[in-house]
Amino acid sequence: MFDHPGLRVSAAMPAHIFAMKALAARTPDIDDLRVLADIIGVESAEEAMQICAEFYPDEPMPQRPVAVLRELFG
Q1: What is the pLDDT of residues 24-66, one digit of tens each?
Q2: Beta carbons within 8 Å of 43's beta carbon, 6+ residues apart
Q3: pTM higher than 0.85, yes or no?
Q4: Residues 6+ apart with CB under 8 A from 72
Q5: Which residues have a Cβ under 8 Å from the Cβ of 50 and sit 6 or more positions away?
Q6: How many whole angstroms separate alpha carbon 54 and alpha carbon 19?
Q7: Domain segments of the chain as ranges
């Protein structure tokens, strides 16, 4: 976060951005998911889905994001 008199800029944590992009499962986000997974140390689809569940506990994991994450982590 950047804080200056009269100006405050906040940014989401990499894990939160990962969860948002994973749940969206958009094709343009795949490269971002790879980079974010490396940054936060995610090594499996199961870990990725757990992160999504932590940030969005009431959001069911749709089939497309599950398939994208399984493909991504092989």
Answers
A1: 999 999 999 999 999 999 999 999 999 999 999 999 999 999 9
A2: 37, 73
A3: yes
A4: 30, 33, 34, 37, 45, 48
A5: none
A6: 9
A7: 14-73
